[in-house]
Amino acid sequence: MSLDPTHATTPDRTPVLVGLSQILQRADPGEARSPLQLMIDAVRSAANDTQAPKILERASAIRVVKGIWGYKNPVLDIAQALELGSLPETGVSVLGGNHVQMLVNESCLDIQQGRHDVVILTGAECGRTMGKAPKQGIELDWLEEVENDPRPLPDVTYGDARWTRHEAEMAKGLERPAQYYSLFEVALRHQAGLSVEEHDRRVAELWARFSQVATDNPNAWIRREVTADEIRTRSESNRPITQVYPKLMNANMRVDMGAALILCSLATARSLMIPEDAYVFPVSGTDAYDHYYVSERSDLHSSPAIRIAGGRALELADLDASQLDHVDLYSCFPSAVKVAANELGLETSRPLTVTGGLTFGGGPLNNYVMHSIARTAELLRGHPEQRALVTANGGMLTKHSFGVYSGSRPEHAFRHQNVQDEIDATPRCEVVTDVTSNATIESYVVVYGGTGARPSRSYTSIYGKAQEISDVPSLAHLACRLDDGRRTWANLEDQDVLEAMCVEEFCGAKVRLSGGNAKVV
């Protein structure tokens, strides 16, 4: 296989992860630290974890994962709080759950090539505080960007900020992650030939295994073991979000969590006398994205990017999936885990998380993977024979990043490869809008709440938007295929059909499309 030409390196430039920290906060909003304060504390804690706190003085780059906060350039505040002698390069990612692992990959290449010697990564979210503060009349001063801030923008902005929703999808009201990942879930169910009841049972059992892992993770948000019956049973505390996903199958964003990682060259780690049993080595990495819009993908149950880029990361590490001791698959929803497991050849019966996932480990939005890497490193320390895979996902199963880690120094330099051309060459589906035609349902999502629903109560999301909660299905979004293979989107509002869709399989059913609406025929 051909590698990028930047892989040659001298042994002392080998990138190594030497410091890590995770912070959980459960304080009342009036006493809670801000995301910036959590990041500062996390970096200090990660420096202490190296047993060489002076490593902060050697940092030439600090990279922050963008969150739901208004800081223009938080690195400036972090550097000031840490009393760094000189200002490091400042970097902030765009939104997206893939960016933590992407930043690790980028930082490893920078260290390997001598562009930087010590790189600090950090991020934090305060979704719990954001949810509780309005109820107590507390205004959070870190949500909005400070106007007329004269300080400079970050030196580097990382990631692809393009919107991941196609206009044809948004025209039908498709926008929320739970809608898209439910579409993938139903497509997986149909592709596997499972009944609705059997599929629901298997998904709940998968998520219960994630909960079991969380009980052994000291930094998991929910450490009480949650059973499969609890996960699948709709209740006041486990309301239906879609027909396949009650609340306990969604990422838990109502968390206050921060984390930090410190990477450096092997030479620097040794010069600072950082204990070698703290070393964890990034072995390989890849970054890629699927066809950007769900509308254009050849099907709704697979991911060429995970298959090609994830598989290549393992190849670059001279491993296959069966040799991995630890795996953390990005777990915003069960379908993300199942698609990744299918593409990478991982059995869903084996542990597929080290944290408990975004439901039980905690889902601090874009920064979850910093926690999964930190937990992976904790498990690898002191086990030089072990290897681990961490995957990251942003958008609607759109943007992906992969990292292989080792408890001992690999025999080769850190490897990274660009495989985007291979992914771009995979089949692409044509999408059309508002057709009048017969069609076949490819997948669908039945949603609860919203316009026309009978709300039982309402709440304010962490994004500040009012949301209606209802136990009655209000609408179905359909992904449909025309006879010529083109994809189109339609909505269905017939209440009898909606309720049937929750207990019966409608993939493969024939519908009549007109004006963007559908009727089962």
What does this structure look like?
By secondary structure, the protein is of the alpha/beta class. It folds into 2 domains: 346 residues, Thiolase/Chalcone synthase (Peroxisomal Thiolase, Chain A, domain 1, 3-Layer(aba) Sandwich); 84 residues, Beta Barrel (OB fold (Dihydrolipoamide Acetyltransferase, E2P)). 28% of the residues lie in helices and 22% in strands. The protein has 15 helices and 18 strands. The strands form 4 sheets. Strands 1-6-4-2-3-5 form a 6-stranded mixed β-sheet, sandwiched between helices. A 5-stranded mixed β-sheet has the order 8-9-10-7-11, sandwiched between helices. A 5-stranded antiparallel β-sheet has the order 16-15-12-17-18. Strand 13 and strand 14 form a beta hairpin. Helix 1 crosses helix 2. The termini are far apart.
Ordered list of secondary-structure elements with their pairings:
Elements: E1 15-25, H1 35-49, E2 61-64, H2 74-81, E3 89-93, H3 99-112, E4 118-126, H4 127-132, E5 156-158, H5 167-170, H6 177-192, H7 196-215, H8 228-232, E6 256-265, H9 266-271, E7 281-289, H10 304-316, E8 326-328, H11 334-344, H12 357-360, H13 368-380, E9 387-394, E10 399-406, E11 415-417, H14 420-424, E12 437-448, E13 457-460, E14 466-469, E15 473-481, E16 487-492, H15 495-501, E17 510-514, E18 517-520
Parallel strand pairs: 2-3, 2-4, 3-5, 7-11, 8-9
Antiparallel strand pairs: 1-6, 4-6, 7-10, 9-10, 12-15, 12-17, 13-14, 15-16, 17-18
Helix pairs in contact: 1-2, 6-11, 10-11
Task: Catalogue the unreliable spans.
Answer: 1-8, 451-464
Largest sheet: 6 strands, mixed
Order of strands across the widest beta sheet?
1-6-4-2-3-5
Sheet-strand content, in percent, reads 15-25%
Global outline: globular
Number of domains: 2
Supply Rg.
Answer: 23 Å
Class from helix and strand fractions: alpha/beta
CATH homologous group name of the largest domain = Thiolase/Chalcone synthase
Total strands: the figure is: 18
CATH topology of the largest domain, anyone? Peroxisomal Thiolase, Chain A, domain 1
| N- to C-terminal distance | 51 Å
Instruction: Give the CATH class of the largest domain.
Output: Alpha Beta
Give the overall average pLDDT: 93
* CATH architecture classification of the largest domain: 3-Layer(aba) Sandwich
